[in-house]
Each structure stands twice: as C-alpha cells, then as structure tokens.
Design brief:
Chain B: Keywords: Acetylation, ATP synthesis, CF(0), Coiled coil, Hydrogen ion transport, Ion transport, Membrane, Mitochondrion, Mitochondrion inner membrane, Transport. The complex is a heterodimer of chains A (about 100) and B (about 120). Chain A is an all-alpha fold. Chain A is built from 3 helices and no strands. Chain B has one domain. In chain B, strands 1-2 form a two-stranded parallel sheet. Classes of the chains: A mainly alpha (about 100), B mainly alpha (about 120).
Chain lengths: ~100, ~120
C-alpha cells in the first residue's frame, strides 16, 4: 500500500508536465480569441453601445425588424440567449454556489 | 484558424452588465433567504422537541411507568376524575392525552400508573 502511494507520488511531476504540454496550445488558442472577443467594453465603446440600443428600438418602432430573415432572427436569438446566460453565471457567483442557495 | 470576430459594443456591454447585475442579484437574494432559513430551522427544532416530549409521555403511559404529581387540595376533583378514568380503557387515556397540553402540571389523571402527592 505504501509502495503504491510512493510510486504515484513519484509520477506526479511527470503528470503535471504532461498536463502543461497538453494545455499550452489550447490555452494559446483561447487567449488568441478571448483577447479580442471577450474583453469588457472600453469606456469609449459605451456610447456606441447606447447608440446601438436606440437603433434597435427605432427599428422595432418603424417595423423594420419585421423584415429580418429567419436565419438572422435565429442568430440574434442565440446571441440574446448567450447574454442571458451571463446573468445566470453572475447569479451563481453572487450566491457562491452552483446549484441552489446554501442557507 | 478563423480570425477572431469583432464583437459589437452593444453585445459586449450587454454581456458584462448582465454579469454584474447577476452577481448583485445573487448576493441580495442570498442575504434575503439566509435569515428566513435560520428562522425555519429554529421553529422546526422547537416543534421537534415538543413532539418528542409527547411521544415519550405516551410511551411511558403505555408501559404504565408514568409518575404524576397531583394537587393535594384537588382531592375531590382527583377522585372524580380518577374514578372516571379507571373505568376507561387504555385507549381512552391516550386519546385524552393527545388532546391536552404537554405541560406536566396538567397531568392530573392516571390509569395504571403510580401517583405521588406533593404539597403544591
């Protein structure tokens, strides 16, 4: 029993090395995309965001949104769902648990 | 690899504001629910204690090992009640027991159990 534990402990550095070698290129890909796509908006972008929101409301009022194709509508629906999911991730962070409130 | 897509600022602000709103919402709801749950747990504890007390007394009555205390001044009432109850069956006493309070001072009746007289 003790010998088996010793053998496992001796293998840990090799395992860590293998994990690092495996994850490095994948982390690089992730970072390559995240640096552009996942950054928070800079303060200069916030007025543009507000402008985009007003455009959306104007489009809704003028009836232009009725002209969107089904493909566009589905794509926008997916994007909206993704934004909604960020809210639930924030809730999980706020309640410090994944499933349910730990009261 | 495809080049990274330039995300529109509206989507970016929407994402991060949803994240922050979610964190605030989760924290506020947690703080709201925590005292409510503590209160419920406290009430559950008390009710459990009362229930266990009742069960213990019912069990003791069934075994016939209940020791009760009666008022010495209540001799008249005591004999009236005890005579009535000695005619009842065991089941009747249990039914009466389930309808009375849990307080020990209320146990002025007995069937086949002992009786101890105290001056109060």
């Amino acid at each position: 029993m003790a010998q088996a534990v010793q053998k496992m402990v001796a293998k840990v550095p090799t395992m860590i090395g293998a994990a690092v070698t495996y994850s490095k290129p994948r982390l690089a890909t992730f970072w390559y995309y995240a640096r552009v796509e996942l950054v928070p908006p800079s303060p200069a972008e916030i007025p543009k965001a507000i402008e985009g929101a007003t455009n959306l409301i104007k489009g809704f009022q003028s009836g232009r949104l009725g002209q969107t194709t089904v493909k566009d509508a589905l794509r926008n629906g997916l994007v909206a769902t993704e934004v909604l999911m960020w809210f639930y991730i924030g809730e999980c962070i706020g309640k410090k648990g994944i499933i349910g409130y730990d009261v | 690899m495809a080049p990274p897509v330039a995300v529109s600022p509206l989507i970016k602000t929407a994402r991060y504001s949803a994240l922050i709103v979610g964190i605030i919402y989760g924290k506020m709801r947690y703080d709201n629910l925590k005292p409510i749950a503590a209160e419920e747990r406290r009430i559950e504890e008390e009710e459990k204690k009362i229930r266990e007390e009742q069960e213990r007394i019912a069990k003791q009555l069934r075994e016939g090992s209940l020791v009760t205390r009666t008022h010495m001044s209540d001799d008249y009432n005591k004999t009236k009640y005890s005579r009535r109850l000695l005619n009842c069956t065991e089941k009747c006493t249990l039914i009466i027991l389930s309808h009375t309070c849990v307080e020990k001072s209320d146990f002025f009746f007995l069937s086949s159990s002992q009786q101890v007289k105290t001056p109060f």
